[in-house]
Amino acid sequence: MIELEGVPELIDPVMVAAFEGWNDAGDAASAAVAHLDREWKGEVFAALDAEDYYDFQVNRPTVFLDGGVRKITWPTTRLSVVRIGDADGKGRKRDLVLVRGIEPSMRWRSFCNEILGFAHELGVEMLVVLGSLLGDTPHTRPVPVSGVTSDAELAGRLDLEESRYEGPTGIVGILQEACTHAGVPAVSLWAAVPHYVSQPPNPKASLALLNRLEDLLDVRIPLGELSEDARAWQLGVDQLAAEDSEVAEYVQSLEEARDTADLPEASGEAIAREFERYLRRRDPQTGPGVATEGGLTDSSFHRDPAAGRTRPPRPAPKEPREHRPGDDTGTQDAGPEKGAADSDGAAPAGGADAADSGRPEDGPEDSGN
To answer: What is the band of 85 on the pLDDT scale with cuts at 50, 70, 90?
Structure first.
């Protein structure tokens, strides 16, 4: 059993996770979780043992100076808790468990079991995994975000797509499969990043993921400077595209394809979602998504392997089904390459219709989760 010393009882906890690497085009997903941790002053309570899951020749440790003393930061996955002091503008409190790290290099099933062990001990009600993929989508239009689950009941209740993808997968697909076997409701949200501007960061895609997460969980998320960063990012890409006539022409073709595909989406439902988001954020006194001062009131649970933390015993949720060779281990890439397919959607999109619609049907937007 995993012992979590000093962690208070959580209120309606939801686990939100993102992993750098193949499932994180433009660093959009990991940046979104980092934003939540920063804005809500997350309290780190555990970190997985890097020795178990990472190839240090692929993900190298870094050295830094702390008061003249050299220290090492090891690549790992950390868990933190944030308490939302006013989740819905009506004084309702809620806790999020944030999981942020790097796609492991090995022992993926054990990695997922350890994450689910923490989820079980904390009473997590649902796991939401964020991802981003490369697609044929123009930077000038709203970022398509797909919501996918393998649970038919959850898909109907939360207006999500059921995954039908078959093909290579990343850690997000394996984690969602593990959730299915463990009986933990799981959802993945995928943002499509323009493949012609795939370099990180991409604050516009991060913002789109947070907006969709806000709708899914019915919470108010403080955006800080993210909206302004997204506008500045788009302006910068506009300027670069204007300097190259071929790029400008290509972007225009993507815009035309996207606008044609989005005509059915210009519905009252989409307008209603945007209006509901506006209402959540309009409280002039509390402001959007106010967190308890300093995060959780109990701050006695900081533990980290770098500080000599002992790794918790292995939990024993049911392991995911056996995958084809090559799915049990993975290597850390700078991001998904265009043209690759991923069952959890972390691969670049194929045709414009699939990516531009932001739907996971028969294409790499399908998260396979």
So the answer is: confident
Of 311, 309, 306, 301, which Cα lies nearest the Cα of 114?
311
Quick count: other Cβ atoms within 10 Å of Cβ 319? 15
**pLDDT tens-digit map of 259-312:** 887 665 555 555 555 556 555 555 544 443 444 333 444 433 344 444 444 344
CA-closest candidate to residue 369, choices 196, 175, 203: 175
Query: Among 176, 186, 187, 189, which residue's Cα sits nearest to residue 145?
Result: 189
Burial (CB count <10 Å: 0-12, 13-18, 19+), residue 107 = middle
* Residue appearing with tokens 């210009």: 266
Exposure string of 31-49, with b = 16+ CB inside 10 Å and e = fewer, is: bbbbbbbebbbbbbbbbbb
Q: Nearest-CA neighbor of 101 among 127, 121, 129, 142?
A: 129
The conformation of residue 215, written as its DSSP 8-state character, comes to H
Give the H or E element holding residue 14: strand 14-20
Minimal CA–CA distance to 100: which of 83, 77, 82? 77
Q: Are strands 126-135 and 14-20 parallel, antiparallel or unpaired?
A: parallel
Q: What share of the chain is helix, strand, coil (3-state, %, to 5)?
A: 35, 20, 45
Residue closest to 196 by CA, chosen among 255, 143, 135: 135
Cα–Cα distance for residue pair 191/126, rounded to 1 Å: 20
Backbone region of residue 68 per phi and psi (left: phi > 0; alpha: psi in -120 to 50; beta: other values): left
Give me 174's structure tokens. 């394996």
Rounded Cα distance between 2 and 52, Å, is 17
Q: Are 146 and 138 in contact (CB under 8 A)?
A: no
From the list 12, 32, 8, 11, the residue with the least C-alpha distance to 20 is: 32
Map residue 20 onto helix, strand or coil.
strand
C-alpha 218/C-alpha 88 separation (Å) is: 7
pTM: 0.72
∠ CA(245), CA(250), CA(256), 5° rounding?
125
